[in-house]
Design goal:
Blueprint lengths: L1 H15 L41 E6 L4 E6 L4 E7 L4 E6 L6 E5 L4 E6 L4 E2 L3 E2 L5 E4 L6 E5 L4 E5 L6 E6 L5 E6 L5 E6 L4 E6 L4 E7 L22 E6 L5 E6 L4 E6 L6 E4 L4 E6 L5 E6 L4 E6 L4 E7 L6 E6 L5 E6 L4 E6 L5 E6 L8 E3 L15
Antiparallel strand pairs: 1-2, 1-29, 2-3, 4-5, 5-6, 6-7, 6-8, 9-10, 10-11, 11-12, 13-14, 14-15, 15-16, 17-18, 18-19, 19-20, 21-22, 22-23, 23-24, 25-26, 26-27, 27-28
Length: 381
Amino acid sequence: MKRRIAVITAVLLSLTNINLASGATSLAGMPPLLNSKDIYAADKPGLLSKTVKNFPSRIYVPNTQSNTVDIIDPASMKVISTTKVPAEPQHVVPSWDLKTLWVNSDHGNTLTPIDPATGKFGKPVAVDDPYNLYFTPDGKYAVVMSEAAKKIVFRDPHTMAIKKSIPSQCGGVNHADWSADGSTFVVSCEFTGELLLVDTAKMKILKKQKIPNSYAKATTSSHAGMPNMGPMPQDVKISPDGKTYFIADMMSDGVWTMPAPWGKLSFIKTGLGAHGLYVTRDSQNLVISNRNEGSISILRFSDRKLIHKWKIPGGGSPDMGGISADGKIFWVSGRYDNVVYAISLADGHLIGKIKTGLGPHGLAVYPQPGRYSLGHTGVFR
């Protein structure tokens, strides 16, 4: 009798996708967490899936002003190919199933597929204003952040056919990340200094809040050539325990923390032009690129303390990037210096600097460990 009850209970839990760690209902169809205390448990060094394990290790660099994608061989630290793509490629994004890389050309209104097994580029797919691209944790939808069009567009993850389009209710929809259970995601609005909470299954905006202006007011002179527009949220990343969101703010020169899935914001100063956020492979630290300062900050999750700040020799403009599969190197684009930096995560020294096309932006390090991709330049779980 007890065994029968246990079986029935297990079946019911699987049908309703109950997350025992949080007590919340998980997104139906989302692969279960490997570790309720570490949502990045599948991202550890060397854990390459069967899908990607034979892909050559490469760095894919979209050059926004050259309208090209450079492919770098990390072993030789040289550009091995350059391919022309439609206007203003912003990010190179791994698909949910890990089989394809998508080049986001927002001004060219296309997504161009790359086969990571061969490095060959496919025929561009017509997609309106694809500034950034994400995938829901269940793999059901691609989510296009149409920044200029002020829309969040849910599409078929393979054909990119529109399933539902919703007004963003803010300006500059850009970056995002999902709650541990996948039921909601937080979106940053770069131009209006706001955050959105979106219901994944219902494809509906639930809440919106304005980021406090108190820190951005004092930073006008620190952003040469840029008007002070108030808070300017950029990358969004959830902590390994799934309890806290971190939001980079380029005009406030630091990161905001927010209880997941939604709550009051607190601020941590990191450096001028805080921009990209990356979780180290041991899930202990957050890597923060400070674009206007030419530095990388390391924040420890356990006590939210900054434990390192590494300056790029001679200055630089670290923007978006990714961590090598073995967890040892942080690859990041130098947006205004037309280079890619390779930075040691052991001690922060500059391993190499590779010349690229003009305006390198959201580069992708590929392949990386993980079971599936949530998009952007590589957010894996």
